[in-house]
Design brief:
With 349 residues, the protein is α+β, with helices and mostly antiparallel strands. The chain is 17% helix and 22% strand. It has seven helices and 19 strands. The chain is globular, with a radius of gyration of 21 Å.
Length: 349
C-alpha cells in the first residue's frame, strides 16, 4: 500500500484493530511493474477483509505480492497522548478532529498527567500541539507567541467545577521537564508543533534560532518587525523524503507558516543525532500570502528530528495540522507517530 495517501494511516489502524500485521518497507519494492519506495506499507493477508472494505470506502489501492520483503520492519499500534489545557487548546482540538477522521486512537492528557510521571508505562507517543510550552525553559525571546488558545483559571473568580479541576496546571521546567526527559530516555516519542518546538531548547539540543541578524564584529540580534514578518502564509520547503518521518512526501512541499520557528543547527548537531528534515532552500519561498523579509529564511531548518536517550523528538516549526486544513502535511504527524525509530547517535542527558 502506497504511503502517499493520508488514508493509509486509517487502513493501518483498521488492520491493528483486526489483529492484522503491518510492516514498513525499508527498501524499494518492484511489484506489478511499479516501484514502491522505502516507507511503503505491507499489510498481512490476514487483514484482507479490512483491505477490501478500505478499497471500497476510502478508494485506497492495494497490490498483492507473493511474500513479505525480508527487511520489512513491523509497525505496531501506539498509545498516543495528546496534550490539552484547561479552557481548551484550539490546536489540540483540531488535532483531535484529525485523529478521529483518520481513525487514530488517542487519549487527552493535561499538565497534571504529565507531572505524575511514569509516562512510558502509559504511552508511546506524546503530542504537544502549538501553544504547549514549558514557560521559562529556554528558546528565543518571544518564541511561540502564537498558537495557544484557551484559558487557565476560573472566570471572574468563580470556582472551577470538580470534573474540570484535573485539567488545571501549567507545564513547568521544575516538574514537567524532568518527566518528559525520562519519557524520552525510556524510549518514548515526543512530537512538537509550532511554538511547542521550544522544547528543543529546554532539552539543550544543539540548535539555535535562525532568524537573527549576524554580522562580523557585531553581536547577533533579533530581526525587527520592519525587517521580517510572515503571518499566515504558504511557503515552500525542501524535504528529505528519505527520512522515515517524511515518507510519502514530495521533495518540495508547501507548508502553512505563521511566524513559525526556524532553526539553525550547531556544528555538532549531526554527531549528536539531530538533523534537518525540511528546510528553506530558496530566498523566495512564498507561494501564497505575505512574506516580508522572506530572504532571511533561506538556509533555515523548518523541521528537525533528534535522538534523545532511547527516544525521539520531532520539531515541526510550520503549523502542519493548522485547523485541519493542510492535508499535504498531515503525513508528517502520522509518520511521527508510526515511523520506525532506531536511535544511534543521540543526546545523552
Amino acid at each position: 500500500m502506497s504511503h502517499e495517501e493520508n488514508d493509509a494511516v486509517t487502513v493501518i489502524n483498521r488492520a491493528f484493530k483486526s489483529n492484522g500485521d503491518v510492516y514498513w518497507l525499508k527498501s524499494p519494492l518492484q511489484a506489478n511493474g511499479k516501484t514502491y519506495p522505502a516507507g511503503t506499507y505491507f499489510v498481512s493477508a490476514s487483514a484482507l477483509p479490512v483491505l477490501q472494505k478500505s478499497a471500497a470506502d476510502l478508494g485506497i489501492n492495494f497490490v498483492g505480492v507473493a511474500s513479505r520483503p525480508a527487511d520489512a520492519t513491523k509497525v505496531s499500534s501506539k498509545r498516543i497522548a495528546l496534550y490539552d489545557q484547561y479552557g481548551g487548546s484550539m490546536p489540540s482540538g483540531w488535532t483531535r478532529l484529525e485523529f478521529e477522521n483518520f481513525e487514530i486512537p488517542y487519549e487527552v492528557v493535561y499538565p497534571t498527567d504529565l507531572d505524575a510521571g511514569n509516562l512510558k508505562s502509559k504511552f508511546d507517543v506524546l503530542i504537544l500541539p502549538s501553544g504547549a510550552q514549558i514557560r521559562g525553559a529556554g528558546g528565543p525571546a518571544g518564541f511561540g507567541a502564537r498558537g495557544g488558545g484557551g484559558g487557565g483559571g476560573g472566570r471572574g473568580g468563580a470556582p472551577i467545577p470538580a470534573e474540570f479541576q484535573k485539567m488545571q496546571g501549567t507545564l513547568t521546567p521544575e516538574t514537567t521537564l524532568p518527566q518528559l526527559k525520562q519519557f524520552l530516555n525510556d524510549g518514548g516519542t515526543i512530537i512538537t508543533v509550532g511554538s511547542a518546538t521550544s522544547l528543543g531548547y529546554a532539552l539543550n539540543l544543539p540548535i539555535e534560532n535562525h532568524l537573527l541578524v549576524r554580522a562580523p564584529g557585531q553581536a547577533d540580534r533579533a530581526l525587527a518587525g520592519e525587517e521580517y514578518y510572515v503571518p499566515g502564509s504558504i511557503l515552500r520547503v525542501a524535504v528529505d523524503n528519505t527520512a522515515p518521518v517524511a515518507a510519502g512526501m514530495p521533495a518540495q512541499a508547501d507548508v502553512f507558516f505563521d511566524n513559525s520557528p526556524v532553526f539553525r543547527l550547531k556544528p555538532d548537531a549531526n554527531a549528536k543525532g539531530v538533523k534537518a528534515v525540511a528546510w528553506f532552500d530558496s530566498a523566495a519561498p512564498l507561494r501564497s500570502g505575505w512574506a516580508w523579509g522572506q530572504n532571511y529564511l533561506e538556509g533555515g531548518a523548518a523541521i528537525l528530528e533528534a535522538n534523545y536517550g532511547k527516544g525521539k523528538v520531532y520539531m515541526f516549526g510550520p503549523e502542519i495540522t493548522f485547523r485541519g486544513q493542510p492535508h499535504g502535511t498531515f503525513k508528517f504527524l502520522f509518520n511521527g507517530i508510526y515511523a520506525p525509530t532506531n536511535p544511534t547517535a543521540a543526546i545523552v542527558p
